[in-house]
Amino acid sequence: MRNLTDLALGEGGTVRCLRASGGMGRRLMDLGFTAGARVECLLSAPGGGMRAYRVRRAVIALRKKDARTVILEDSSHE
Fold first, then answer.
1. Can you point out the beta strands (E) in the chain?
2. Is the separation of the CB atoms in 77 and 5 below 8 Å?
3. Mind listing the domains of the chain with CATH numbers?
4. Would 20 disulfide with which of 1, 24, 26, 63, CB 3.0-4.6 Å?
5. What confidence score (pLDDT) does residue 68 get?
């Protein structure tokens, strides 16, 4: 299973599901990280702790620990 942290800069994928629960899960869904959404990795912070992703025409910065909770479809299904 791949998650957002596995995407290289400029690479995209499709959201399969979220592993986050509670407040963080709701927040990610509100930001557009829902099943079927296309996501692209745009930027990475120098320390690697945060990355910016384009999802549903918005650019969202996520910490690595939160990005790991967004599970992507297998590349063979895209």
1. 2-3, 12-18, 38-44, 50-55, 58-63, 70-72
2. no
3. 2-77 (2.30.30.90)
4. 24
5. 96
